[in-house]
Amino acid sequence: MKEEGNPEVSTPPSKSVSPKRRSSGPRLVTKPARAVRKPRKPANMAVSLTEEQFERMMAAMAPKPGSLTRCTLTYDGTKETDVVEAFLAAVNTYKRAERISDEDALTGLPLLLKGAAATWWQGMRDKIVTWDDFQERLRRTFAPKKPAYLICMEITSVKQKTDETTEAFVSKKRMLFSLLPRPELLETQQLDLIYGLLMPYIQEKVPRTSFTTYDKFLEDAVAAERLRDTWKNANPTSASTAASTAASASSALPEAAHVPVSSQRKPRQRCRYCKLPGHSLEECG
Fold this sequence. Notes:
Blueprint: H1 51-61, H2 81-97, H3 102-107, H4 115-124, H5 131-142, H6 148-157, H7 166-178, H8 187-195, H9 200-205, H10 214-234, H11 238-251
């Protein structure tokens, strides 16, 4: 007798499935690289210009010449050499800076000439055709050249004034030296002539042996003048005090002496600032 049991169930063979691998991080997705385009080279553009077109272009780029319309210099016909020379030097400098041609400068001259100079120009403008001719005729009319001996006399005869700065005084003398014919004097020789015409205060504060050039001399002289002015400003009552002291001293003299005036010995006046005799504080340079 057959044993009854659980019937056998046939199962189809199972397929072996391999386990999936899980990535431990985010998955990177790469894109294909794009091809780098090289910049295109610009095409060579050659511009051809004619000679006339090139000259026009250069003329347009060149600075335009100016005129005397904006010049503020004037000359009224003063017959002094330094005034005429200063005017011509300034006008020539302005003319070069503004690139003014000789023709345009002559056209604009009536804007600069006043008074007697304007009247002179009205009668001479038809005869003057060049700028150099204008300068020569202007000098001949308003600043005739002096003989050398007259220039030397003018240099040595005029001394420095008490209210005149050393720098201004030396500038006038140097202008006169420039008018002398060549060969010109050496700088040390010019300084020797000027030094004897200075105020006593400057001579005392700036010895002649302390400088050999104009620059060194003017530097020391300006420093001495600045020191003097500072002392005067700090002592405004010194002048009045010195005057009152001298008056009281003269009144205190005994009247019974009756000494003749010719035999009286006057006290020698001495400056209270520079301590030099022969002048008072008010007259000190």
